[in-house]
Amino acid sequence: SLHSLLSVIILFAMVGCVAPEGTVSGVAKCGGEQMEIYSQTPSRTSNSGLNTLWSDGDAISIFHAESGSDGYLNDGEFAVVDTTNGRFQGTLNSDGELVVGTPYDWYACYPYSAELSSPKGAGRSFVIGSVANAHQTQNGNGNTAHLAGEYMPLVGVAKGVKAEEKPSIAMRNVSSMVEFRFKNNGDKSVKVKHIVFSVEGCALVGAFNVDFSNADNILCPPQDGAVADTAVLQVENPTAIASGSEALFYVAVAPFK
């Protein structure tokens, strides 16, 4: 499966909140202050081969809580401002001041959704591969561009990070990828235009609730009719595969056993 990892660093300017008396309190970051997020390595949401890159307009959801608690604070949208270096900007929750010496857990999710209210997936489902009873589209043989974007959600968790430290969040793809290697053993050239992949009894594509409050990235049971056990790939602009040659085709699916 295509489980590319990316590292994200949340950088804080270490400026304490000023108390009414003019003294500096033990706060590393004040609620409502701007903060930045950096991606250490190439991430998603566009593909160059099997390398992945952020694209203009990308945004992620950020949450945090005191370490070990489920008192999640929604820090909202962090929008990319530098696709080359993976730099995002956003604002810490107004109730989310970070107290020096206190450990915090950090949660990230792509794509950003204003409806997502908790790392446990409350308020929003995410589509993997395609909506149920629809199809994915691959443009040409071997093209991987469709293996990125909002139908390939990413989540990440960093736990036990002290307020004065820089959190590093390792993101991972919630979905998987099935590669089809087609070899033409016939005498004439052929074109692949359509692939249907089905696993009886397994939810492969559709809308899933994703609990990313821990490293397991649990796919929660969706509503009836929200998923399908068949993934369909439509190939646009296919190239003829000559006798003895082969071509690759890719289908995004939810993990299954």
How does this model look, in words?
It is a single chain. 0% of the residues lie in helices and 45% in strands. It contains no helices and 21 strands. It is elongated, with a radius of gyration of 21 Å. It is mostly beta strands and 257 residues long.
Summarize the topology.
Elements: E1 6-11, E2 27-29, E3 34-39, E4 46-48, E5 51-53, E6 59-66, E7 73-82, E8 87-91, E9 98-99, E10 103-110, E11 126-128, E12 136-139, E13 154-162, E14 168-173, E15 176-183, E16 194-198, E17 205-211, E18 218-220, E19 227-228, E20 230-236, E21 246-253
Parallel strand pairs: 12-20
Antiparallel strand pairs: 1-3, 1-14, 2-9, 3-8, 4-5, 6-7, 6-10, 7-8, 10-13, 11-17, 13-14, 15-21, 16-20, 17-18, 17-19
